[in-house]
Amino acid sequence: MPPQVQRRAGIKTGGRVEFRVSGGIINIIPKLPSADDEYTQEQRRVIDAGLAEAQEGPYYGPFETADQAIRFLNNEIRNRKASKRKTTKP
Questions:
Q1: What is the DSSP letter of 24?
Q2: What is the pLDDT along the chain (90 residues), one digit of tens a residue?
C-alpha cells in the first residue's frame, strides 16, 4: 500500500488491517488491538476476576437522570458518615 494512502487512512507500517467488501467497494480499516493482544494471560485473569466481582455487585441504578444519581450519592455519603459516628463513639 502506498505510504501516502497509509498516512491518510491512519495505518502504521506493520499495522494490521481489515478488508470489508460491500456493494463492490472495498474498505481498508485499521484493525484495533483486542484486549487479548494488550495484556498477558496473568493480567487478563486479574481483569476478568475484577469484572466478575463487579458484576456480582453491589451496584445501584440505573438512574433516570444525573440529578437522581447525585441525590443517591449524597444520601449514601450522609448515611455512611452517620454510621461511622455511631461506631466510633465510646
A1: T
A2: 788 888 887 788 888 888 899 988 988 888 877 766 788 889 989 999 999 998 888 888 889 999 999 999 999 999 999 888 877 666
* Phi, psi of 21, rounded to the nearest 5 degrees: -110, 130
pTM: 0.37
Provide the 3-class DSSP secondary structure of residue 31: coil
Per the CB < 8 A criterion, the answer to whether 51 and 60 are in contact is no
Q: Where are the alpha helices (DSSP H) in 1-90?
A: 3-9, 35-38, 41-56, 66-88
Q: Is 61 helix (H, G, I), strand (E, B) or coil?
A: coil
Burial (CB < 10 A; 0-12, 13-18, 19+), residue 54, is exposed
Answer positive or negative: Cα dihedral of 56, 62, 68, 70.
positive
Query: Do 19 and 28 contact (CB within 8 A), yes or no?
Result: yes
